[in-house]
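Example (one chain per record):
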Amino acid sequence: MVNYRKTFTELEKAGSKFWPTELSEKEAQLSAIPLLIETHETFINILSVNVSSIEEFFSTIESSNLPANLFLKHLVILSDFGGEMLRRVSNEFVNLFPQGKFNYYWLGEDKTYNFKNFDNINKKLVAKFSNEKLKIRDKDLSITIQKHASSATGNILSNSQKDIIALLLFGSAYSSGSEDENDVASILAKCEIGSYLGKPDELNKFLKQRYIYVSRVTAGATSNSLGQIAQKYVADFIKQNISQSSVKIKSGSRLPRVTHTDEATGRLTSFDIVVTNDTKYVAVEVSFQVTTNSVIERKSGQAKSRYEQVEYAGHKIAYVIDGAGNFERRSAITNICSYSHCTVAFSSSELSILCNFIQDFLNS
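Predicted structure:
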């Protein structure tokens, strides 16, 4: 019988280490992170252009090869100004900016920005600010990139986008002299990037400091998003490569008689993927980590107990493990390899081995 259980050395040798192209493409459909990474240098170049007015800066964005809403997404993340803050500004706009304008200090001068999205007659916003209206949701960005690649036009900022860009650039320099100024200051405290326009050296220093904070904010959500994509990719691969009509592939499912405790009355344990023909069951756990974190340590800590329960119940458990971050945890991976019926890395050839293992067991 084929030995499907790899050692740490065998698994590392077969591993991809870094995010495979097929997953990067899927992730780009759901998350802005790959797009932001890919366009980071262009974003910095736009901010580094020496301009003398906000209107000139808008023109710089529109004449660049970076889609306007993707530029705004960069700015929103760096300013830590998400959907909740956009709603707050929209709801309190008339109180914050009763004249539809704000004064700020830039280039050694007092300047005034008149909001383009403000109806001066009726004293209200023409359209409220939101991720959807500003076209900065992740799915909007993916669509924009596709259109932008096939057209030289369409990089025009809307009035709402211009207004938010102005706030994100110069909000921290806002000055009104009114009683509401402290409220505005607290909302716009991180909106200070405008101070570094046209100053590449100072800008890079500022961004390095800011990205330390931003990375903490986005890392958890990104890791979770990528993990879900990896699981779905593995589940879809199994579906496409196991042709038996009686086989079912379920995500986040359970195995009969495998619980969180040793007692039969305990709550059934959930696994990333379960493959079954309703008689035999195979649990599949998936972990792809490019940067090291504690997820694999948790899986390792559970490995022995899960393996023993799965084995006792007559089922099988397999692991798909890859990524440079995971391979930095040699002890954890070695433990998982010891308590697994099948361990594979993340590639088509490796996942094909997993499918062979599943079919051999279900057909035995």
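Caption: The beta strands are 101-106, 109-114, 118-119, 124-125, 248-259, 268-276, 281-288, 316-322, 342-344.
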